[in-house]
Give the backbone structure.
Amino acid sequence: MSQQIDVRELNALIESRTGFITDLVAGMNRTIVGQKHLVNSLLVGLLSDGHILLEGVPGLAKTLAIKTLSSLIDAKFSRIQFTPDLLPADVIGTQVYSQKTESFTIKRGPIFANFVLADEINRAPAKVQSALLEAMQEHQVTIGEQTMALPSPFLVMATQNPIEQEGTYALPEAQVDRFMLKVLIDFPTIEEEKKILRAHLNDSFAKVTPVVDLQKIVEARELVKQVYLDERIEQYIADIVFATRYPERYKLSKLKNYISFGGSPRASINLALASRTCAFIKRRGYVVPEDVREVAHDVLRHRIGLTYEAEAENITTDTIINDILNNIEVP
């Protein structure tokens, strides 16, 4: 009974503290036509303290989306265009020698911002991609002998073109795993395309003004951590992730030949975090199975390795996740 009272109180508290989400979504919708899943994923990443990898062809408003979000929150935004000749120092910064003082000073790179857009991350070689690893995982950067903390909140949104396009470098598994979500973006519908066309021809996009401050985002993150996650939901999450590693235990033996490796414990952690945030965005103080199912594809699709057999048969990670979700018992 006390648990029910706590959840009711938490529901009331969340209801009173989530008004800013409506303002953020409304602000995004004034600039971004369609792409509801993209907008929702950005909010999940922001409130879960996680990073986002977006995959889609150029021109689908990936850059515009994160720039709009940072403007709505009145935060510091920086954009890094990844190219084959980019150096790690161009991302995190470097030591500069001053002849006047005869000493080295640190020149900070564009990574020192609340929102960092790593545009076309798969255009740069591995040494530059790895420069992001410490920043994304530890929220700090080491230049020379000095380690500096990054601003809070800190969110990296990286975009990449589909790997089959020429001149790209596939991201290593260790780095891909650092992204909480991998979101696939598709073309707009024909009605949405006409709206985009009209808005550009009439120059009718609304000017973006801040609707929330950073402190409110930090407070919301703390509130997300209090969202109730029942033991049965924990078991459900664990079963989903374990099914990517040992499909035969869940009567999914047919998937065994398609999976080279399954999700790591980071997959379970991020699936739980994203589910909590999903419930929070819907103004609920507890997680239901639908929250888990809603974020499962974005959390898991980049954490499952495919065998050559899967690629030969055009089996994607999304197909595997669909099979797992359809076969595991929902609590």
